[in-house]
Structure formats: C-alpha cells, structure tokens
Amino acid sequence: xxxxxxxxxxxxxxxxxxxxxxxxxxxxxxxxxxxxxxxxxxxxxxxxxxxxxxxxxxxxxxxxxxxxxxxxxxxxxxxxxxxxxxxxxxxxxxxxxxxxxxxxxxxxxxxxxxxxxxxxxxxxxxxxxxxxxxxxxxxxxxxxxxxxxxxxxxxxxxxxxxxxxxxxxxxxxxxxxxxxxxxxxxxxxxxxxxxxxxxxxxxxxxxxxxxxxxxxxxxxxxxxxxxxxxxxxxxxxxxxxxxxxxxxxxxxxxxxxxxxxxxxxxxxxxxxxxxxxxxxxxxxxxxxxxxxxxxxxxxxxxxxxxxxxxxxxxxxxxxxxxxxxxxx
Length: 328
Prior knowledge:
Elements: H1 16-19, H2 21-31, H3 55-60, E1 65-74, H4 85-102, E2 106-116, H5 122-139, E3 142-150, E4 157-167, E5 181-185, H6 203-210, E6 217-222, H7 227-232, E7 239-243, H8 252-257, H9 261-267, E8 274-278, H10 283-293, E9 299-307, H11 312-318
Parallel strand pairs: 2-3
Antiparallel strand pairs: 1-4, 2-4, 5-8, 5-9, 6-8, 7-9
C-alpha cells in the first residue's frame, strides 16, 4: 500500500504554525460552509444553541431521547501515512455515527476539537477538514463549532468529534437473556486493508432494530474493538455465547490478508458492523423481516447465549488470542 504525503512538513511556511489560530479557524469555516448552519446553532458563538428536539419530530409530537457520543482519531494509532487525509477525516465522523447507529438513533449535531504539532502541513489539514465535511454531509450531521489547540510536541495530530443524535427507543448493550441469538450485519475481519476508514455506518439498520416489535431486539453494539471483545459486552453475567463457526461471515479482505480466519473475525476489529441480540422465539420472524427490508445487507445468525461462563470451544479455537485493549 503506497504511502500518502506526510501530515507534517519540514518547511515552516507550509505548516499551521505559519497560519496562526485565526487563519486555521477561517479555513475550517470555509471547509464546513455546507454542513454548518448559521449561529447560534453553527460556528460563531461561545456555545452552539441546539434545538431540544428536531423540528420535524417536535411537530409530530414524538418523544425522543438525546444521544451524545465522542470518539477520536490519532495519527499513528487510528491511521498512518497509508491513509489519505480526506479518508482520515471521514473515519472520524463515521466511527462516531456508528455509535449512534448502534443505539438505534439518528445523528444530528457535532463539534470538532483538533490538537496538532505546529509542523502539521496546512494543506494536509485542509484535506482532512474536507473529509470531515464530506462525511458530515453524507451522514446528515451539522458541524456546530469546535476548538483548536497546539500540541506540546511536533509530529502529533489528534482530532476528536463530539456528536449528538436522537432516538425514540435507544438500544442498550444490557438486556440480552439466555436463549437469545446473536446476529451481525455485513462481514468481519480484514479491516486493515481499507474498511477501518471506508465503511458505511449502519444508521438505517439501527433504526430498523429500534423499531422492531417490543421484546424482539434486546441489546446492540457496534463492532469496533473486535468480535471477541464486543460480543462479551452483550452477555448477561454468568453466560457465554455458543458460536456457530460456520455461520461467521468472513470478509474478502480477510481472505486476502490470509492467516487464521477465526482470528481475523474475532480480533481484527474496526468492522463497524452491528452486533445485536434477538429473542430466541422471535429470531425466525425477525430474519424474514430483515431480508424484506434489507435484501442487499448480509445478516448472519452467529451464536446463541447460554448459561455458564466457560466457553471451552471458543477458547480452544482461538488458542490464547487476546481481545483488543487500548492500553496494552
């Protein structure tokens, strides 16, 4: 995979240090002009004044819950020089929107915070901001403002997005029971090739889950840290998941990368698919309704929740593989 131009420049005149804060903000305003409303909701005041609920929902008398999430991308951690600045910006927005999708919500407004070394290339930053703007437009997000700060060290870049959304019936992680089935959208593994930045958040699918008949979909999470770690977040205390290994959806990119397919599926991470629990008695009817609504979105029934914490079959299959940890 060929490397993109470095985010950092050795020529002072090409860096954000030569621009100064006011010019950086001016360029951000220009990049976000299509996705930032006028003040007080958009860029321009000390805070953004957001509507309590979307105007169309208020008119319909819908009761909504506000969702709030935040996520970051750090150069050298979440992307490197093999990823274009535009795609790095898109990844930042999309991974936040994926969290809202996992709660069965619709994304709304966001604020952006940047921390960068003064040798960050001004051209690279503008391309990153364009990627943020394009993903906001793609996902229906309005950019309401943000912050920019210098890093204490050179060759550093981090961007954090705080995103709000709304949901009629937020889907929790807790709520699954013994006998429920675990389903996953799409395919898993191999995200390193491109899916970690080139993916579509499952917003429509999350809304479908949240609007399923009461008691059908009991819990949901997006697969960001890998199936091994994320499936455990849905399990009630004293239970485990009995996986159907043959039903696990291995991606083409995982096949291209090679290696143990189960490790790819369980440990690669950054798949950004929805993993959710469906009541055992409703699973067949749910699958039929899904295929009618999303005929082109793969859905796999991959496990059933069972009593007991021992999962000898999974442990043996992965033979000591570790789930992703942020600080290991």
